Each structure stands twice: as structure tokens, then as C-alpha cells.
């Protein structure tokens, strides 16, 4: 819980990780390149006083995570979103078992989400069922640019992905978090394109698709498809810290999101351990749209409360104290998708 | 290439003569300048900016052809025997998309190979997850499909076109939003009838005209500004939505361009000296001291 100027904010950090990128866990040069890329994001976007030494960045462990999120970070509830990257790391990047253990120990504070890779075929489907029986998760994180043998990417509209979504539907895994990366098959296409989210969101209207990083670097494509698909949400992982270095850009991101998809489908996250939640929460509560940006209305306290926690709490049925809840806003000016406009959108 | 960009690139070159691997200060500067000039036509297809402005050219090395005793101040085209040109490229992260990385590297090799007086060209991409693959493909002139094998289906042409269209969309929005900001009485719904001749001369209009040419749209003064990629105008009721969509594209392109520049500066100390400022979407942290005045809720 964060309190400022008499207002109470219930905080849900919707994208956190417990990773191990230490040299002894790196399988090859790509393991180092990957964590170095994260660390450059961290160095580039963080305020000086929030910078971590490289060694701290490689591995945090559960104890530090609990402190950074819940003691120092105002977070009421956080959701693990694992990335395996088993082609880069010997015992995976995301430490699934440790994260699951922590979530089991602190069910009021942590939710464990799982992952799958549709290229694992029938075996992977069986494993998903078995994992679900053991861990009982309600969400999965998919990284479409994950390397897997000869393949370095897949699309959400691939037939095998659909097989997995059908099983998700059957098992009650209703939140699908999506992270696009730099590779896809074939490489002829833009790997960051979110058009495949459009397809699966139309075909699986009972599932919720949370596009992480609000589609960055394809904000415009994300806004357009999320505008048309009411079951598509935007996760603010990596977008949040732009508040510090590039506040005008961040203002435009938030302004566009609220214009296109409204205030009820945007979810805060620190993307821990890329960043820690404390400064992001404090600064977001203080953040305002620059005065000269006449195309956007100022952010309201209610909008900030929804983005910082209430929206994600709704997705995961996380109990929120009665007095902190807020009603949904009206539809956006752009409205939900009209069926006859769907094809027009898909062509562009 | 515009005059503005040439001047800007020349300014940077003058400022950083000592950085190049050739390490020769003035010596051989003429030849290196030719190489850099040739590379300035290579665009990052996603950001629609020259790789020379983005700081992606890490080093340029020009050696006279074996057996010639060339005057180092000579221009390249006097070396009939053909010089060896070695260029290293660098990108903001190891995980920049390999398809874009390949395009920039192979476009660089093509541009340099076409330069008079050049014999052999070596272009290498440094510190990328696909450096080995891409560098081997370039050395063998294997082409896109030969480089990426089973991961490549046809070509990267459509990928290029997607971003040329986005660059046009962003340029169009910049011009129209500038008009709206300058004249508060102008309604958003009215921008559908603005013609090229109504735009004030300057950088934004030049950029729009250039991008129209790139995607094959006419540039007559009477042509409408707000058009789709096929050059078709929007019916009046669709104008505000078209402008809003274009705006999200512009925000995205500007945001990505600045984030990529910033990451390059973080990754390679001193890389900022190799970058030409991008006024579009610039913020105080990009060395432009713009005041940030926030809205009040009433």
C-alpha cells in the first residue's frame, strides 16, 4: 500500500522475476549478452540513486526480492512471470521452483504464473497439464522469441499455439501474458508485430491477453489491436521507467493507452529485477502529463489507482479492501471493435 | 539525402576525426570521408535514419591496394587498383532484431562496393548475438536466404516497406500536428483537406516530401497531406481517427529512435560523439533543455 496526500493506492506488481544470470549458470555467450542487455536497460533508464552494481543484477534471491517488493516497494501483491531461456542458461534464467516455493509460502503476497512453449508439441501439452495439477496457476507468460533448438521464435497464431490455448481454456488458465522479442520464424517478418495477438484474442474471447511492454517497440500496433479487442490488456513493464529519463515520451505512451484502450486495461509492473517498484510507484503517483500536450487530459487519481493495482487485482481476483475499489470507466471514445471493421484493421 | 543531413554528418566527422581506427587524424581523411559519405545512404530500416547519424558505424579503415604507393590524402577514386575498406558496425544491444541488423550490414557492403576505387570490402557487425552468422554471410556474399538458411523464407523487402510506410505516416502527423498547435482554431477534423502547399517550408515538410517520394506518392503542391499508403484521402468522418493512428505511429518511431540512441551511448562509452541530434521527440535527457511544465487537475 502506498499513501500520498491522503490517497491510498493498492499496488499490484504484475510482472516480476527471480532470475539467475550468474556466470556459472550461463550456458554460452548469449547468456552474458542477454543479462548485459537487461543491465544496459537498467543503466540507461534508472535514476542514479537507483542504480545497482552489476553483481547484484546477476542474481537477487528470494529474500532480497521479498524486501525490495514488500518491505521497501509498497507492493501488496506481485505476480511471477517466468522466462526459461534454457538455450542461454544451464538451469534456466527464471528460477521457477524457487519462485513457486515463495508463492506457496506467501500466497497472500505472491502469485506464481507458469510458461509453455508450443514447439514442445504433445510432450509439452502433457507437461503443462501435469505442471498445472501440481502448481495450480491461473496465468502463463509466453516469450515468442525464445530459442528452442533450430527455432528462434513462433507466432501466437500458429496451430500448435492454439492447441495450447485450448488446454489453457480447459484448465482455467485465463491470463496469457505475451512478450515479443527480436526473433521470429520466418525472419522475413517484423518479430515485434502484435498482429497475431489480434487473431488469438478474437478466437479465444474467454482468455485475457496481456501484452507486456504495451507492445513496445510497436506501441501503435498494440493500441490499434487492443482498441478492437476487449480481452487485450497492456502491461507497463519497461515502459514505467521512461518516466524518469523521457517523461514526455512516457506521457504520450500513457495518453495514447488511455485514449485507445481506456483506464481499465493497463497494468503497472516494475519488471523486477530490471527495476525496483519503490521509485516507480512514488514517481507514477506524482506524474502528470506536460501542460503543452493539449491532446491528452490530465491523469486522475482514480486512473493511477487502477493502473497501479486495481486492474491487475481484478484479473487475478486478488482481494482489495472494499474502500479502495473503483467502478469501471465508460467505453473509450474509439469504442470496442465493430465486427465489420475487424478486417479493415487486419489489412493495415 | 538532404543538405541538412550532409552538413550534420560533416560536422560530426570534423568533431571525431581522431576516433577512427585508421588513427591517422588528417592522414587519409579524404578516403575515410568518402566511405562515411557512402555509408550515410544506409538507413536503419526501423528508425528511418542513416546509420552514420545513429552512431552505428564503429570504425572505418581504408588501406591502399597492395603494391601501390598512394598519397594518403588522395580521394578514393584515384586508386584504380582498388583499396581495401574495412568497416565495423555496432548496435544498441546484442539482441537488436537480426533481420534489421543484417539489412544494415548488407546495405553497407553494397554501398561501399559501389564506390569508385574500392577493391575489397569487409563489413563486420560487432557484439551481436548473430554476429558470427551475419559476418560469415556477408563475407561469402550469401544474401539473406544464404545467411539465415531455414529461418529465411523469401526476402526482407516487405519488412522494409512496412517501415517506409510508418516513416511516411509519422512525417505526415508531424506536419499536421504542427499546424494544429500553431493554429488552435483549426479543428482536428479539418486536417483532411490540408494540402502540401499549405504546409510551412522547413525540416518537417522536407521530411514528408522525401518520404512521399520513397513510397511512390506524388508531391505536387495541390496534393492532400493526410493520405493512406496508397495515396487515398480519408472521408471527413474518418479524419480524426486517421490522425490519431498516425500520432501513435509517430510517438512510437520517435520513442524507439531515442531509446536506441540512448542504449548505444550506454553500451559504448563515447558513442554520443558519433550521433547527430534528432530534434523530433527530443527530451531534456537528450541534451536539449526543454522545460517540463505539468498539467493541473481542476
UniProtKB/TrEMBL annotation, chain A:
Superkingdom of the organism of origin: Bacteria
UniProt xrefs under Gene3D superfamilies: Metal-dependent hydrolases
Molecular function GO terms recorded: hydrolase activity
Parts forming coiled coils: none
UniProt cross-references to InterPro entries, sorted A to Z: Amidohydro-rel, Metal_Hydrolase
One Pfam family, short name: Amidohydro_2
Region (Disordered), start-end ranges: 324-348
Segments forming domain Amidohydrolase-related: 12-318
Biased composition (Basic and acidic residues): 338-348
Protein name: Amidohydrolase-related domain-containing protein
Automatic annotation (TrEMBL), chain B:
Stretches assigned to coiled coil: none
Gene3D superfamilies on file: Fe-S cluster assembly (FSCA)
Organism domain of life: Bacteria
SUPFAM superfamilies: Fe-S cluster assembly (FSCA) domain-like
Domain MIP18 family-like residues, every copy: 32-63
Matching InterPro entries: FSCA_dom_sf, MIP18-like
Ranges for region Disordered: 1-34
TM region(s), chain numbering: none
Protein name as it appears in the record: Metal-sulfur cluster biosynthetic enzyme
Organism per entry: Raineyella antarctica
Amino acid at each position: 500500500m502506498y499513501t500520498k496526500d491522503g490517497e491510498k493506492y493498492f499496488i499490484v506488481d504484475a510482472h516480476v522475476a527471480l532470475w539467475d544470470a550468474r556466470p556459472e549458470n550461463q550456458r554460452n555467450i548469449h547468456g552474458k549478452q542477454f543479462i548485459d542487455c537487461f543491465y544496459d536497460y537498467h543503466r540507461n533508464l534508472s535514476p542514479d540513486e537507483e542504480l545497482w552494481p552489476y553483481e547484484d543484477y546477476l542474481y537477487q534471491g528470494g529474500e532480497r526480492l521479498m524486501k525490495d517488493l514488500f518491505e521497501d516497494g509498497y507492493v501488496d501483491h506481485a505476480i511471477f512471470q517466468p522466462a526459461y531461456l534454457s538455450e542461454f542458461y544451464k538451469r534456466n534464467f527464471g528460477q521457477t521452483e524457487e519462485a513457486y516455493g515463495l508463492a506457496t509460502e506467501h500466497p497472500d503476497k505472491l502469485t506464481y504464473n507458469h510458461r509453455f512453449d508450443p514447439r514442445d508439441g504433445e510432450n509439452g501439452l502433457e507437461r503443462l497439464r501435469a505442471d498445472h495439477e501440481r502448481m495450480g496457476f491461473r496465468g502463463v507468460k509466453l516469450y515468442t522469441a525464445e530459442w528452442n533448438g533450430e527455432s528462434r521464435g513462433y507466432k501466437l497464431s500458429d496451430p500448435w499455439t492454439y492447441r495450447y490455448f485450448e488446454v489453457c481454456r480447459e484448465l482455467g488458465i485465463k491470463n496469457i501474458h505475451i512478450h515479443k522479442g527480436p526473433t521470429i520464424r520466418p525472419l522475413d517478418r517484423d518479430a515485434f508485430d502484435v498482429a497475431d495477438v489480434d487473431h488469438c484474442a478474437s478466437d479465444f474471447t474467454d482468455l485475457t491477453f496481456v501484452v507486456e511492454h504495451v507492445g513496445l517497440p510497436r506501441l501503435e500496433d498494440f493500441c490499434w489491436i487492443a482498441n478492437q479487442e476487449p480481452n487485450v490488456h497492456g502491461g507497463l513493464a519497461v515502459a514505467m521507467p521512461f518516466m524518469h529519463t523521457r517523461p514526455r515520451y512516457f506521457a504520450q505512451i500513457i495518453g495514447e493507452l488511455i485514449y485507445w484502450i481506456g483506464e481499465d486495461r493497463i497494468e503497472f509492473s516494475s519488471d523486477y529485477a530490471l527495476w525496483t517498484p519503490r521509485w516507480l510507484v512514488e514517481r507514477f503517483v506524482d506524474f502528470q502529463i506536460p501542460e503543452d500536450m493539449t491532446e491528452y487530459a490530465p491523469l486522475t487519481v482514480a486512473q493511477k489507482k487502477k493502473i497501479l493495482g486495481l486492474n491487475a487485482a481484478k484479473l487475478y481476483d486478488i482481494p482489495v479492501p472494499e474502500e479502495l475499489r473503483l467502478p469501471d470507466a465508460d467505453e473509450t471514445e474509439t469504442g470496442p471493435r465493430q465486427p465489420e471493421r475487424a478486417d479493415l484493421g487486419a489489412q493495415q | 539525402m538532404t543538405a541538412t543531413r550532409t552538413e550534420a554528418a560533416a560536422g560530426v566527422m570534423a568533431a571525431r576525426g581522431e576516433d577512427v581506427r585508421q588513427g591517422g587524424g588528417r592522414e587519409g581523411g579524404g578516403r575515410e570521408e568518402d566511405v562515411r559519405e557512402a555509408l550515410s545512404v544506409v538507413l536503419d530500416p526501423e528508425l528511418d535514419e542513416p546509420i552514420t547519424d545513429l552512431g552505428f558505424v564503429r570504425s572505418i579503415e581504408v588501406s591502399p591496394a597492395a603494391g601501390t604507393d598512394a598519397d594518403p590524402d588522395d580521394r578514393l577514386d584515384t586508386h584504380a587498383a582498388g583499396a581495401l575498406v574495412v568497416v565495423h558496425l555496432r548496435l544498441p544491444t546484442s539482441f537488436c532484431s537480426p533481420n534489421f541488423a543484417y539489412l544494415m550490414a548488407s546495405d553497407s557492403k553494397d554501398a561501399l562496393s559501389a564506390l569508385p576505387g574500392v577493391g575489397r570490402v569487409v563489413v563486420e557487425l560487432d557484439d551481436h548475438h548473430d554476429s558470427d552468422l551475419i559476418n560469415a554471410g556477408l563475407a561469402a556474399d550469401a544474401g539473406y536466404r544464404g545467411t539465415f538458411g531455414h529461418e529465411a523464407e523469401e526476402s526482407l523487402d516487405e519488412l522494409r516497406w512496412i517501415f517506409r510506410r510508418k516513416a511516411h505516416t509519422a512525417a505526415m502527423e508531424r506536419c499536421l500536428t504542427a499546424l494544429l498547435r500553431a493554429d488552435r482554431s483549426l479543428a482536428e477534423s479539418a486536417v483532411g483537406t490540408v494540402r502540401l502547399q499549405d504546409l510551412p517550408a522547413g525540416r518537417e515538410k522536407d521530411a514528408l516530401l522525401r518520404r512521399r517520394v520513397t513510397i511512390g506518392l506524388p508531391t505536387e503542391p495541390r496534393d492532400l497531406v493526410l493520405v493512406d499508403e496508397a495515396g487515398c484521402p480519408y472521408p471527413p468522418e474518418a479524419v480524426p481517427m486517421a490522425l490519431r493512428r498516425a500520432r501513435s505511429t509517430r510517438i512510437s518511431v520517435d520513442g524507439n529512435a531515442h531509446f536506441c540512441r540512448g542504449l548505444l551511448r550506454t553500451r559504448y562509452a563515447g558513442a554520443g560523439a558519433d550521433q547527430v541530434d534528432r530534434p523530433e521527440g527530443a527530451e531534456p535527457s537528450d541534451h536539449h533543455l526543454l522545460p517540463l511544465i505539468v498539467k493541473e487537475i481542476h
